[in-house]
Write a structure and sequence with these properties.
Its main location: cytoplasm. The chain folds into two domains: about 180 residues, Rossmann fold (3-Layer(aba) Sandwich), CATH 3.40.50.720; about 160 residues, N-(1-d-carboxylethyl)-l-norvaline Dehydrogenase, domain 2. The longest helix is centred in the middle third of the chain and has 24 residues. With about 350 residues, it is α/β, with parallel strands linked by helices. The mean pLDDT is about 95. An eight-stranded mixed sheet has the order 3-2-1-4-5-6-7-8, with helices on both faces. The protein is about 55% helix and about 10% strand. The structure holds 1,4-dihydronicotinamide adenine dinucleotide and 1,3-dihydroxyacetonephosphate (13P). 1,4-dihydronicotinamide adenine dinucleotide (NAI) binds next to α1 and α4. The site of 1,4-dihydronicotinamide adenine dinucleotide has 27 residues, from α1 and α4.
Length: about 350
């Protein structure tokens, strides 16, 4: 059994700490908000982010990062993408041994257009970084922490490290972990599905039905696979847990913050008001900006992403964005991906 630090005391960090504690590990969860950490230590509950879940006694909260990582070899990084660099810089300062960093966040950094594993490699000195592993897949904290059957994927450039993380998290009762060596595909699928979930929430908010949602999910996956393949992902990854799997759960679950935010936008609320209301991270907003920039840079057609970008940042109405998608020039369903795959072969 291992001593493991979880950095980020939000819903996902708390739920993953819960799984690790269930698996017999000594879990140290670090957060920057004293009242959350006090609640975890004194009441064994994270009232703000995971209300109603009784946390195991073997999970201890810390506000000192130095104390939380003392004697630890594996760190789970579970903060929103926007906070990743700041937390890594603090971690770099206090780390005394090489760490395996397991990141579980779903985003891409706007402007630098880096994936999170690339940000980790950039921020951590090689002497303090053993391996980078990504844990991703269709998994809402609310269900995982109620021990409901869930499947995810562990991915790394070093498959031994991915398998070690698979063993740490795998729980025969409710948490099944697969492996996949395609780091790019796993990270791109996890990040970009949030864009499509925002769009699915919007069409639901506008009062459109299941046909519209199925169209968005299918054509959304096509544009995720197009961009992912250009960036070097294995296209097959997008038919797996971190592709279609996560797309399904995020576009259809009431737990999804991205879907809920989109739903409010579709009902006519302003973005700022929606984000203030949510009180939790809605990764899809920044990821839309990053994916829009990637699509421009690599000249990849991403009409749904582009339409959502206009709704979020150019004040285009949700209804006008749907109309613009429906009136696009006719095309062949598989044309672009077939071209990209053809180019990769040659
Ligand atoms: N909630 C879920 O079911 C799942 C979330 N994820 C991903 O996990 C990541 C984290 O999401 P959640 O835990 O859901 O978010 P959340 O909004 O529930 O919690 C975020 C936590 O990060 C903390 N935080 C923010 N900035 C910080 C900083 N600079 N330093 C230290 N802590 C900081 C907040 O105080 C909060 O405790 C996101 O990328 C999300 O996409 C992935 C799978 C499932
Ligand atoms: O990534 C998730 C589920 O797999 C969480 O999605 P939301 O951030 O939309 O809640």
């Amino acid at each position: 059994m291992e001593k493991i630090a979880v950095l980020g005391a939000g819903s996902w960090g708390t739920a993953l700490g819960f799984v690790l504690a269930d698996n017999g590990h000594d879990v140290r969860i670090w957060g920057h908000r004293q009242e959350i950490i006090d609640g975890i230590n004194e009441m064994h509950e994270n009232k703000k982010y995971l209300p109603g879940v009784e946390l195991p006694m073997t999970m201890r909260g810390y506000t000192s990062l130095e104390e939380a990582i003392l004697g630890v070899e594996t760190v789970i990084l579970a903060v929103p993408t926007k906070a990743i660099r700041e937390v890594l810089q603090s971690l770099e300062e206090v780390a005394t041994n090489p760490l395996t960093i397991v990141h579980v966040s779903k985003g891409i950094e706007p402007d630098t257009l880096l994936r999170i594993s690339e940000m980790i490699e950039q921020e951590m000195e090689p002497a303090k970084l053993q391996d980078v592993v990504i844990l991703s897949g269709p998994s809402h904290a609310e269900e995982v922490s109620r021990r409901q059957p869930t499947t995810v994927t562990s991915s790394s450039k070093n498959m031994k490290a991915a398998e070690k993380v698979q063993d740490l998290f795998n729980n025969h009762q409710y948490f099944r972990v697969y492996t996949n060596p395609d780091v790019i595909g796993v990270e791109i699928g996890g990040a970009l599905k949030n864009i499509i979930a925002l769009a699915a929430g919007i069409t639901d908010g506008l009062g459109y039905g299941d046909n519209a949602k199925a169209a968005l999910m299918t054509r959304g996956l096509a544009e995720i696979a197009r961009l992912g393949s250009v960036l070097g992902a294995n296209p097959l990854t997008f038919s797996g847990l971190t592709g279609i799997g996560d797309l399904i759960v995020t576009c259809t679950s009431v737990h999804s913050r991205n879907w809920r935010a989109g739903n409010m936008l579709g009902k006519g609320h302003k973005l700022e008001e929606v984000l203030d209301n949510m009180g939790m991270v809605v990764e899809g907003v920044r990821t839309t900006k990053a994916a829009y920039q990637l699509a421009e840079k690599y000249d990849v057609k991403m009409p749904i992403t582009q339409a959502l970008y206009d709704v979020l940042f150019n004040d285009v109405s949700a209804k006008a964005a749907v109309d613009s998608l429906m009136s696009r020039t006719k095309t062949h369903e598989m044309e672009d991906l077939a071209n990209i795959l053809g180019e990769r072969k040659n």
